[in-house]
Amino acid sequence: SYEVHLGSWRRRAGEGNRPLSYREAAEELVDYVADMGFTHLEFLPLSEHPFDGSWGYQPVGLFAPTVRHGPPHEFRDLVDAAHRKGLGVILDWVPGHFPTDAHGLARFDGTALYEHADPREGFHHDWNTLIYNFGRTEVANFLYSNALYWLEEYHVDGLRVDAVASMLYRDYSRKEGEWVPNVHGGRENLEAIAMMRKMNALCYGEVPGIMTAAEESTSFPGVSRPVDAGGLGFGYKWNMGWMNDTLSYIAHEPVHRKFHHHQMTFGLVYAFSENFILPISHDEVVHGKGSMLAKMPGPDWEKFANLRAYYGFMWGHPGKKLLFMGQEFAQRAEWDRAAELDWGVLEAEPHRGMQRLVRDLNTLYRATPALHVMDCEPEGFRWVEANAADISVYAWLRQGQAGDPPVAVVANLTPVERTGVRLGLPQAGRWREVLNTDAALYGGGNRGNLGGVVAGGVAHHGLPASAELTLPPLSVLYLMPGED
């Protein structure tokens, strides 16, 4: 999915630098996201909020699409326009906290009505915001009806729930003495857990075809397991561990990567414990963290090659994919909520190449069952080479249902071309190079295997066939069986 802050995707420079209206986004944004091959458009919160600097995460009007972009019926038109182009729409939903603004829900009738009276239960120091009293029937019902409102009234296809960990734990970001244990003396917020379970059960039960996703940064068990199996009932969970590990790895100079090889393989130890989304979200490109391109080491050509390889690795890895706007063309500056994306960089070929790569990755991913139908099942993945730390090479197979052709993914994460690398494959015959992140079209050096290799019957890596490959520097290759 393509994650968007609607206030800063594009702006009208000649009209006081105003953001797009819902009506304009229904054409420009929807057309762009569809053309780029994404399946879903995911919005940062669009509920009414007083503070621009919160990016929507401090909402006061939970039942009101923000008037910043136009009236509510035009937001409805935006959702309809996305659906006509085959795009799903996911909205950020924020039950984790609410601001203290006088025109919000704080002390609504002069008492702590929606929140807790005790600040140890009712106040988030991280955000200077209040916390809902989830154990109150009226408060929980308010939140359930709001979740259903967006799904039923606006035909939104999914809700991504922000900061789930902050709701799950009573001691979240709190020192000793700053929190109150639950009735069992523990740290879990039992009322919040019950609220999320019922919210998910209601949403999935009342509105067919929707999905919910949790931004949950701990190892709380069963976030994306069904409620009747003891889980929280979310459809998906953001994989923050994978994101932190892989971004840490790719930031290392390639000469040091062999010492951190496991950071790219560790995600597979727990990859199927939840239904995961791999999120490279807005949080990774703000507050001095720099843009995706700026995180990459080396001179400019290496930065681009590293980022192309990183996206190649990500799209081949089990789990659904999420990119924040601007990352698809390697914006150089970090995200600024008050300005539009730096579209001007697309005048330079390496940026256009990155954009083409993301479009082609999306197109290949959607068209190739082995890359997506078993994303959340261990049977969809098999390591071929996980231990080649000395040369920073990784290889694996993605598998679909019976009859779906497999995909071999091979990554070389050093700036050295590797020739004669023998790779085990599940069958002999021709294997086409269906994607190569080093292709000239993407800004690479056009090195590789001239479109494919022929695998012989020499068993290798525990597989019945194998082929010798040339791996371009800082690249990922995708191979599939069959003639060109």
Structure in words:
The chain has 484 residues and is of the alpha/beta class. The protein has twelve helices and 22 strands. Helix 1 (22-35) packs parallel to helix 2 (72-84), helix 4 (137-153) packs parallel to helix 6 (190-206) and helix 10 (300-316) packs parallel to helix 11 (349-367). The chain starts with a strand and ends with a strand.
Short description:
The protein has 484 residues and is an alpha/beta fold. It has helices at 22-35, 72-84, 119-122, 137-153, 164-168, 190-206, 240-251, 262-265, 292-295, 300-316, 349-367, 369-372; strands at 2-4, 11-12, 18-19, 40-43, 47-48, 61-65, 88-93, 123-124, 129-130, 158-161, 211-214, 236-238, 276-280, 320-324, 381-388, 393-398, 407-412, 418-425, 429-436, 452-455, 465-471, 475-481.
**Overall spatial form:** globular
Radius of gyration: 24 Å
Structural class, by secondary structure, is alpha/beta
Question: What strand line-up does the widest sheet have?
Answer: 1-4-7-10-11-12-13-14
Look at the structure and give the mean pLDDT.
97
Unreliable runs, pLDDT <50, ≥5 residues? Answer: none
Q: How would you summarize the topology of this molecule?
A:
Elements: E1 2-4, E2 11-12, E3 18-19, H1 22-35, E4 40-43, E5 47-48, E6 61-65, H2 72-84, E7 88-93, H3 119-122, E8 123-124, E9 129-130, H4 137-153, E10 158-161, H5 164-168, H6 190-206, E11 211-214, E12 236-238, H7 240-251, H8 262-265, E13 276-280, H9 292-295, H10 300-316, E14 320-324, H11 349-367, H12 369-372, E15 381-388, E16 393-398, E17 407-412, E18 418-425, E19 429-436, E20 452-455, E21 465-471, E22 475-481
Helix pairs in contact: 1-2, 4-6, 10-11
